[in-house]
């Protein structure tokens, strides 16, 4: 394709550069022996690109959840309407729904491709502890708040569920290989190992609910769903993910707020989580390549650091905002 571009565009550097770019984005395949060609756009999203989108959408979500919501509160405290601000807030939080779906997908990908799953779990556990104080400061203005735990706990439990499932699956393969070799003992171990798999996932979901981690058990199930459907076509994967997102969010909200809000309101409120399905636009373009990765210190440290920065910003802006809305 490069020779064709050189011959067609001649000495025009701009058009030849554009041709090279397009040729990298498009697969050219010969069809049959009649000299016909089939052109197909390549998937262009690397693992690093998905991470960058997740970081950006997460920052947007937390900006609106921490700083913009304080602006709304000051606006209403001054006796001014905030309808337009509420609409902007809803848009910002809708964009933010994309972030966790991408992080859940990347957690499953990381589990499948990491060199050491033990170290992967260790890093998630350490940063779950490190991020808890920044998380509590940003969202509840308290150093310790037991009402909600940060997303690293959810990721840790989701990866733990995959690890238990994978360990038991390996044991099941060993038992089946023994059967093929004529060794009959150990057949009763397969139902027990299947029970371990199911029990491991259920235990991680229960732990997420009891610890009140971000996204509760829906987050754990979403991570596990991406792991379980790694070889599926996009359409059935989207259907399963959409079901988990909606039913998981609605049931968790009902268990948490069922005494305070009617089921119909919680149903409508849970529909907002479905904006996260927009994450399948970049996921559908994932090419399986690693891409140019940020340092691990940035990948893990971005979460607690940006929460501390947002908390510091809202604390610094609070008196300023109060003065503005008082005199406006």
The structure class reads mainly alpha
Q: Main beta sheet: strand number and arrangement?
A: 2 strands, antiparallel
What is the H/E order? HHEEHHHHHHHHHH
Q: Please list the strands of the largest sheet in the order they lie side by side.
A: 1-2
Number of helices: 12
Average of the residue pLDDT scores: 85
**Uncertain stretches:** 1-6
- Helical content, roughly? over 70%
Shape: globular
Describe the protein's topology:
Blueprint: H1 2-9, H2 13-25, E1 26-31, E2 36-41, H3 47-77, H4 83-113, H5 117-140, H6 151-180, H7 189-211, H8 216-228, H9 234-257, H10 263-270, H11 280-283, H12 296-327
Antiparallel strand pairs: 1-2
Helix pairs in contact: 1-2, 3-4, 3-12, 4-6, 4-8, 5-6, 5-12, 6-7, 6-8, 7-8, 8-9, 9-10
Give a structural overview.
The protein is mainly alpha-helical and 328 residues long. It is 73% helix and 4% strand. The chain has twelve helices and two strands, in the order H-H-E-E-H-H-H-H-H-H-H-H-H-H. It has helices at 2-9, 13-25, 47-77, 83-113, 117-140, 151-180, 189-211, 216-228, 234-257, 263-270, 280-283, 296-327, and strands at 26-31, 36-41. It has a two-stranded antiparallel sheet with strand order 1-2. Strand 1 (26-31) and strand 2 (36-41) form a beta hairpin. Helix 1 packs antiparallel against helix 2, helix 8 runs antiparallel to helix 9 (234-257) and helix 9 (234-257) packs antiparallel against helix 10. The N and C termini lie far apart (63 Å).
């Amino acid at each position: 394709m490069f020779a064709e571009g050189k011959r067609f565009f001649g000495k025009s550097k701009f058009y030849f550069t554009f041709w090279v770019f397009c040729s990298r984005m498009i697969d050219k395949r010969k069809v049959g022996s009649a000299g016909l060609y089939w052109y197909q756009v390549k998937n262009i999203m690397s693992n690093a690109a998905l991470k960058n989108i997740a970081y950006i959408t997460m920052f947007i979500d937390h900006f609106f959840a921490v700083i913009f919501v304080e602006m709304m509160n000051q606006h209403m405290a001054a006796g001014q309407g905030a309808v337009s601000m509420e609409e902007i807030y809803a848009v910002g939080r809708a964009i933010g729904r994309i972030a966790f779906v991408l992080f859940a997908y990347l957690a499953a990908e990381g589990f499948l491709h990491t060199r050491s799953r033990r170290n992967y779990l260790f890093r998630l556990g350490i940063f779950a502890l490190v991020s808890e104080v920044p998380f509590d400061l940003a969202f509840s203005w308290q150093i310790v708040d037991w009402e909600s735990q940060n997303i690293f706990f959810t990721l840790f439990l989701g990866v733990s569920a995959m690890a238990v499932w994978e360990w038991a699956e390996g044991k099941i393969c060993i038992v089946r290989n023994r059967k093929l070799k004529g060794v009959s003992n150990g057949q009763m171990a397969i139902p027990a190992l299947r029970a371990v798999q199911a029990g491991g996932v259920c235990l991680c979901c229960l732990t997420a609910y009891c610890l009140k981690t971000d996204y509760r058990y829906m987050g754990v199930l979403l991570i596990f769903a991406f792991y379980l459907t790694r070889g599926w076509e996009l359409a059935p994967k989207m259907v399963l993910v959409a079901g988990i997102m909606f039913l998981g969010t609605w049931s968790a909200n009902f268990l948490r707020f069922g005494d305070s809000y009617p089921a119909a309101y919680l149903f409508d409120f849970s529909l907002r989580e479905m904006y996260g399905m927009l994450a399948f636009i970049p996921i559908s373009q994932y090419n399986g390549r690693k891409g140019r990765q940020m340092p691990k210190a940035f990948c893990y440290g971005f979460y607690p650091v940006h929460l501390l920065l947002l908390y510091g910003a809202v604390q610094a802006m609070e008196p300023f905002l109060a003065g503005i809305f008082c005199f406006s």
